[in-house]
Amino acid sequence: MRRQRIALLAVLALFAVLPAQAGAQQASQLRGTWTLNREASDDINAKINTAVARMNVVVRQIARPRLRSTNTAYPRLVISYDATNVRVDMQGRPSVSSPANGQPVLWERESGRTCTQLRGDCVRVTTEWENGALTQTFRAEDGQRVNVYTVNADGSVMTMNVTITSPRLPSPLTYKLVYNRAS
User: What are phi and psi of 181, to 5 degrees?
Assistant: First the structure.
């Protein structure tokens, strides 16, 4: 009876360790340079049009260009990290660097500098690892954007799932961008 309990505990411990190891392996595969696969990615403009379709026509004319300016398909992404920080470089945009433990930092969208207050182009960024996925959340005064980065089993394809929420949007704007490993 005692041997059966020990064997059962060993099997349970193995099952507890395997997902953590798989998550760590997936996280380690996120590091690198990625190029956009336009054919496999969503059409962001079509997704924006769907998200604003139920808005008043005047409000829609304001919302659509604003959403387009902050939601672009970056041709190239570089993800790097160490034990404490994660850095995401998006071609044509300032780098985003923040602690990997979820501690928020204030970051200015246009310059990439650290801010002192949440206002204007300044957003609160948090970055966390969860089950091998990297989640970056950008919170502004009028809503938030969540980027969830995952990589396939062989490490050749990364998917960035984006969700934009705001009290001003009738429903969340969601889309995915698919990237192939460049290095």
Answer: -65, 130
What's the pTM value of the predicted model, to 2 decimals? 0.81
Distance of CA 131 to the CA centre of its chain: 14
Classify strands 122-130 and 105-108 as parallel, antiparallel or unpaired. antiparallel
Mean pLDDT for 55-77 is: 93
Half-sphere exposure (CA, 13 Å, Cβ side) for 159? 13
Here the CATH number for the domain that contains residue 68 is: 2.40.128.20
User: How far apart are the C-alpha atoms of 45 and 70, rounded to whole Å?
Assistant: 12
Tokens (6 digits) for 108 = 């200015």
The pair of three-digit structure tokens given for residue 68, joined into one six-digit string:
């387009």
- E-strand spans in 37-104? 76-81, 85-90, 96-99
Structural domain boundaries enclosing 33: 2-181
Q: For the chain, what is the domain count? A: 1
